Structures
1.
Amino acid sequence: MAEFVEEPIYAQLARIGKALANPVRLRLLDLLDHREFTVEQLATAAGVGLKNTSAQLQHLRAANLVTSRKDGTRVSYRLADPQVSTFLGLYQDFAGERLADLRQVVSDHLGDPETLQPVTAEELGQRLDDPHVVVLDVRSAAEFDQGHVPGAVSMPMGELRDRLDELPRAATIVAYCQGPYCVVSPNAVRLLREHGYRAHPLDSGFTGWARAGGQRLAS
Amino acid sequence: MAEFVEEPIYAQLARIGKALANPVRLRLLDLLDHREFTVEQLATAAGVGLKNTSAQLQHLRAANLVTSRKDGTRVSYRLADPQVSTFLGLYQDFAGERLADLRQVVSDHLGDPETLQPVTAEELGQRLDDPHVVVLDVRSAAEFDQGHVPGAVSMPMGELRDRLDELPRAATIVAYCQGPYCVVSPNAVRLLREHGYRAHPLDSGFTGWARAGGQRLAS
DNA sequence: ACAGAATTCTAAGGAACATTAGAACATCAC
DNA sequence: GTGATGTTCTAATGTTCCTTAGAATTCTGT
């Protein structure tokens, strides 16, 4: 056991680290970023057992990273504060810069960033009014309805192949899904490119947009 | 065992969290912030066993947070990159805002921030040329020699009581020691106030200064 | 080459954590 | 009320982590 004088301070600091030291908890935080979920929804979305999900959520709540709200028989969780979302973004960027393995795994999952050429939320914000840019929301219609990038076209991934002709060939298409590690928008970009479109994913997805410029949310 | 598809991504992300999930490792990172230490020096400074110190350092190195350098028979560690220092500062601020317990423990150790009224590095930077502001370095002479705030007066804590008359009574004194949780500068501030001086600690100490404006370091 | 010093490697006991089953606790529909 | 549903609590298992002792490694000085 460590015995240095400042131990209690660093023990408290470590509580945040411990909260971030588990893949399931990090996944739950990403799911909860700018959304609210019940325990059951989170368990399903994360592919984790219900009881384990509940236990991890309480761990996160103990670290003041999430808050819960009882709504009848269900309990809904959300991030405790917008600061948590901001910090999560910084944390993920920092981890990506530190760990070559992380970059490799992300690349394997989502595709090579050099090929995909993601657009940042800032860049997209500056080009929102450009008529040659079409913003494509490939999440479900329900997610689109809960908030989306202003001017975005809703086209859930399952419908994309059949609705390609709705998209102007001359435009540059920026496709996004929910989170920073969501595989849907890279897949959409690849499909679009196979059909001759110029397409890019939005970096960090809707979460990235909300973090950078939540004030311009459309609903 | 978690089974969701993105598990490998979040497992990698969790590596950084795990590195930050231990009080000893956080303490070592703070010690290494803007300084270089051998394993033995770190073990002594942190009050942790040598073998444990070595083991934790290797954990930090595996996460690419520190690098090591062999110098004869000794091994010196330092932060892998200035980004690590920046992130550490963000992490500590974030933890302080999330955890009331942390604020309480810090307050118990260092004193109530409302009473101490720490000066931020930015504020100090703007007032460096003010002749009514005296910057006081209460670290050891060796630490002073390795780098200090420009214009600072070196007066190690042990000599402070006997050298009070070297300080002008009319001035506002900003005292600093090394790290964000260093207890020396708050003690110096209390001693100075007892003797009628107007004194404040520098927020996050020399580390905070180096993080904010390392370009203005004096040596 | 040899002795000595600093650090790391290996191994092992004990503590903390993840995960899941079953019980308990709320809340809603009736 | 009673029963059904969603969530949390308690207990128990296996896993990972912390810490330290002893052996091995690497380099210095002679």
2.
Amino acid sequence: MKVRVLSWNINSVRLRIDSLLSIIKEYRPNVVCLQETKCPNDQYPYEEFHKAGLRNVYSNGIKGYHGVSIATNLEVERVEQKDFCQKKDGRHLSLTVTTKNKPLTINNFYVPAGGDEPDPEINDKFKHKLDFLDEASAWLKSKKNKKDLILLVGDLNIAPHENDVWSHKQLVKIVSHTPVEVRKLEKLRSSYDFIDSIRKFYPYTEKVYSWWSYRSKNWEESNRGRRLDHMWSSPELDKFIKSTSIEKRVRDFERPSDHVPLIADFKF
DNA sequence: ATGGTTGCTTGGCAA
């Protein structure tokens, strides 16, 4: 049994629904995880997913900002959404689906961006980001079970490695690449001994990005990107992974998101 | 060092 998971910070699901439908048609994912849907649950385009063959659709969205969703054509055993930091904003949703072997849980995260100033004392948004990562780490750790199939995907808003950014030197004090954030992300990863499934297929010796700012023309030529989006597999799930990819071409779509989709392929 | 763009909404924030 093959399972394909696609994860994308779509930056408005309503604005880019046609781009998403063409991506679904082309890549045929079994699971679609979105971040920054910017769409309240009662306005979510559920029917568009149904028509595209993804019958089970769940949204954790609020008006205006952030918001996550998961759509799948697999049987859903369980749905969970965790409200970290008591903010009541849509930054997490998880589904447990049925595979040939045993249940697979997909956690979809949208970690707070953290504002501009990398100091929790003077910047509440940065504090929220660090607190969110601490709470998510503790929550995952409390659920840890060696034999479970767990996938964590999403826009984690941190590019941890030197080769996850266009210039380590110029970004080391910029939110998304500061040492304190990198440590918190590593804590999140180690909470479940996750394996970085993108880097498993894209070695650390090469520069790899999933996001290019809207604020520069010729995004491709200047190539000042960051790898903010991630796919992590639990050790048991890692046994079944066949490949991952970063669909960079999507950054060239008409009215693009500033992020591109990630894909992971599993065979159970 | 600064400003650059986009989306949700129509003024200003969040990214």
